[in-house]
Fold:
Amino acid sequence: MCGIVGAVAQRDVALILLEGLKRLEYRGYDSAGVAILSRDDRLQRVRVAGKVKELEDALAREALYGSTGIAHTRWATHGKPSFSNAHPHVCRGEIALVHNGIIENHEELRAQQLALGYEFTSETDTEVVVNQVHHHATGGKDLLEAVMDTVAELDGAYALGVISRSEPQRLIAARRGSPLVIGVGIGEHFIASDVFALLPVTQRFVFLEDGDIADITRQAITIYDSKRNEIERPIRVSELTADAAEKSGFRHFMLKEIFSQPRAVAETLEGRIAEGRVVEEAFGPNAASVLDTIHSVHIVACGTSYHAGLIARYWMEAIAGLPCSVEVASEFRYRRLVVRPETLFVSISQSGETADTLAALREAKQRGYAHSLAICNVPESSLTRESELVVMTRAGPEIGVASTKAFTTQLVVLMLLVILLGRRHGLGVEDEHALVAQLESLPGKLNAVLELSDQIQTLAEQFANKHHTLYLGRGSLYPVAMEGALKLKEISYIHAEAYPAGELKHGPLALVDDDMPVVAVAPNNGLLEKLKSNLQEVRARGGRLYVFADPAAGVENSPGVQVLNVAPIEEPIAPVIYTVPLQLFAYHVAVLKGADIDQPRNLAKSVTVE
Ligand code: M6R
Structure:
């Protein structure tokens, strides 16, 4: 999604803004731009319909000097990716503005502005915002008041950075629904869509709340809430360092993140288990009293995080004995539903800024769920601030658009939750010890499965020229197949669909032929024999099978069947392990296809619009 950076400083800010944009590239975008007020108060702007590297080249040809500026990477919503739609947008050479979000009443505002004589140079919803600020500013208001009046007229979501030629030492920031942080420097201040963008210049941040408007100068930051009352927001010191978002010798962020899963899982468990049991306080001081009241669970999330929820449903019902439903957030938020009493609403999100998941949490609060719990990877994100209980996944920054370590650490946290709830509903101490032992064994087992990377690369070579594929799993391995298919399609652009293997004969089997490879996950569990029968159905139709299997599963290499053995792993934790070879498989196929691994086309890391 769009990325924003801004600065008001004593030094030239062009390079700071550019570095900030580079560090936001992972969010996904299609065009980029920067606007800087020159020392003689001219508003200078450079934009490109392409990558930040092209913007950097353009700035090398046409250097912009000045100490107040804003910059942007655009992920197209209204209007195609193009030079004229790229931000910053400028009104009459006076005011420049960058925006992340969607202005829902842009057509109405556009009509009003056309009547006032404003001209439009883009197809964006954003241009009405800069015009509106200009309109209020020419009515005698200063920039802060003009932005305040403008945002009061906007429907929809926004994070904004605004500068004006007539107030060159001032940067106004505002947010509602889209993330924005202020970086606190010494004699200089910054804004950005997330902290990564600003880590080279500061580790001190103020996280704006929905409705906040900030008046930022070199010397001061003054924040107003949506009712225009001046308000204090705390300064938080980030533990992240500037190199947190670097590849550390790996070819891609995604590969680095896949390989960091043993450590990420170990950190997720750190301090949360003791003497073979889950530490209840790890879920917060109020966790015990909340969990005591819970008799059912509703999980809501998007994409990969939704898949984590689907796996947790198998665990929640089998281990904790509690009814559990799982739903994609974009459906949940618009559905009339029946809320069971004593239900815990669980939201899962790597970023904590996914617009649909956030809206679902807000909706859940209105609809009378007993309590809410968020599982999230980004501290101080909107989701963590709005949920009653919060458990962090501690995976560390995830930069690749394709989510990997966030998923496996979500599963770990979900298992901890299942154990805590299970304890209250008949899960015995011995069973808890066994589950905790499985969790503790995960880092070692993940390391073992990562050693298969070269073999998986060889397997991937047979896939790079395919256009369609099916993924199969059964039980809690069905969502693993869904996650594997999602990974393959998002980074290699090969069409992949997942099915519960028993469902194949009810339709999808018609697709199977020599040119439709079928990937399956086959741990040695109670559904193995059923799965093997389903695989036979594929072979009988000439389908080629690629099976990630337990050595004891009895699935052997044979013509049309290629098996990659995965070290034995017990139920119920098998989904965590079987996810990893599918991540590596998608990765190697995508590399062979020459795809943009970390920033796949059309996708964004943090989906902050609906
Ligand atoms: O930040 P979130 O976990 O809320 O993001 C949800 C999805 O947008 C995300 O998982 C997406 O599906 C990933 N690109 C999958 O790899």
User: Anything to note?
Assistant: The two ends are 11 Å apart (CA to CA).
